[in-house]
Specification:
Mean pLDDT: 82
Low-confidence stretches: none
Order of helices and strands: HEEEEH
Strand order of the largest sheet: 1-2-3-4
Radius of gyration: 15 Å
Distance between the termini: 48 Å
Largest sheet: 4 strands, antiparallel
Structural class: alpha+beta
Amino acid sequence: MIDVSSPAMPDVEELRMLRALVYEGVALARHGPYVARFHKWIVQVSREGRCSAGCLAPVTVEIRHPHGDLLERTCLVVDDRADRETGR
């Protein structure tokens, strides 16, 4: 049975919030995996390694449907050197 209360795609407001959660997750994932939920959508962000000096860090982002299927997975490269220069 298909759950019709769970849309296949997020609406405009959900997309805005999911995007904000991805940005937040990328910033916080340096301390460990980041998981957030919004209207049952799941955002997971994790870094692939640790850097002791400023470096480029690969980050994996997954957004899952409320029923668990993958909506999108992407890999980003984050420049940790920029954070060190701004004192974050």
